[in-house]
Design a protein that fits this description.
heterodimer; A: mainly alpha; about 65% helix; B: four-stranded mixed β-sheet; 4 helices; elongated; transmembrane (chain B)
């Protein structure tokens, strides 16, 4: 499979019946989706299930895929937002057991990795508790721009909203957290970017 | 103070998990494309059958051509949690699992029952539930009900709680022993 193919071309090949093209899209973006889902859910195992569901939803909506300069990442993260919000329903739509069969026993499982992942989950849940003060739209923008590093334009594609709305929601998110914790004592600092990182 | 710039580091999905999930996704995509071609083929066969009947008046030709498609979806097995087909293909009581079979081989009831029994033993399936539970780890095995393997109209193996009469009661043929 040609590594230089754009996502949107790989998806077209997959629709033509090239299963390896769909597999290639998974290889290419599973980590981004997996980490985005983790940051929304605070659980690595739930993020694994969610990642599978995101790609299943991607396949189901393949005729409506939206690319950003050939990349499907912003759209995939938008799909991920919907999946994590409706995780229970999405699991029912697809047969989740297909993805939960225990892995082969040869799977390495070093104890330090387990400990680090538990620590990740504890830290992430603390962040999510604080972010729950924001409304849903603000949380989405914070997750896209500040946590997953999308640019404002990419976040606008992902969330299907105007770029100005991305900016205003982010500004409101900052203000809301500051007002909840006056005198600069907000436990979540929302400072990393003005324009959003470019992936 | 929690700083979003110091979120937990990005991690990769464990390699074996990623491989299993990728393979399952590829199977799902392939399966979702395959029925379309079968439907088209089936329509063509029906048209050809109609023409045969008109041209030759041959009942035998019509029988052969209109016989339901029985091409099995060879690597899928549905594990039901109750002896009912309620919910159709998308919201039934149970779940679907993938199962490798020899390319030229036949589906065997024993293998289909065994893979579903494994899900029951791990606590993934609960009687009468549409939900799929989490693996129970190394705790004691969960009870496995008596299971019987039937064949759905689309060729998918269906393993249901029940006995040798269950398939007939549901209007399904038994899967080959």
């Amino acid at each position: 499979m040609d590594e230089s193919l754009r996502d949107v071309d790989l998806l077209a090949l997959a629709v033509e019946g090239r299963g390896d093209a769909f597999g290639q899209l998974f290889r290419r973006h599973a980590t981004v989706v997996y980490n985005h889902c983790f940051r929304r859910l605070g659980s690595w195992s739930a993020a694994e299930d969610a990642t599978s569901l995101v790609f299943l939803e991607m396949w189901r909506r393949r005729d409506r895929a939206v690319h950003f300069e050939g990349s499907l990442v912003p759209w995939l993260l938008g799909v991920a937002n919907n999946v994590v919000r409706n995780l229970h329903r999405a699991r029912r739509r697809y047969d989740a057991a297909l993805f939960r069969i225990p892995p082969p026993s040869a799977e390495p499982d070093p104890a330090d990795d387990v400990a680090q992942r538990l620590d990740d989950e504890s830290r992430m849940r603390a962040v999510l508790r604080e972010l729950s003060r924001l409304n849903r739209g603000e949380q989405d923008v914070v997750a896209m721009v500040l946590m997953s590093g999308l640019s404002y334009a990419e976040a606008a594609t992902a969330l299907d909203i105007p770029i100005g709305t991305v900016r205003s929601r982010l500004a409101r998110a900052r203000k809301r957290l500051e007002s909840a914790f006056p005198a600069g004592r907000a436990p979540v600092r929302l400072s990393p970017c003005d324009e959003g990182a470019t992936r | 103070m929690i700083d979003l710039a110091e979120l937990p580091p990005e991690r990769k999905m464990p390699a074996a998990h990623a491989q299993l999930r990728r393979e399952a996704l590829e199977r799902h995509a392939a399966a979702s494309l395959a029925p379309r071609s079968r439907r088209v083929t089936y329509r063509l066969v029906v048209v050809a059958a109609g023409a045969s009947v008109l041209m030759f008046g041959g009942a035998a030709a019509a029988y052969v051509a209109l016989k339901p498609a029985t091409v099995p979806v060879a690597d899928q097995t549905r594990c039901y949690t109750r002896a009912s087909l309620k919910g159709g293909d998308h919201d039934f009581y149970g779940t679907t699992v993938g199962q490798a079979v020899p390319a030229a081989g036949q589906r065997k009831a024993e293998a289909a029952v065994e893979i579903c029994a494994a899900l029951w033993r791990q606590g993934l399936l609960t009687a009468g539930s549409k939900e799929v539970g989490l693996p129970a780890g190394k705790s004691a095995d969960h009870p496995v009900p008596a299971l019987v393997a039937c064949t759905l109209d689309n060729g998918v193996a269906a393993v249901l709680p029940g006995d040798e009469r269950t398939c007939a009661r549901l209007g399904l043929p038994r899967l080959q022993e």
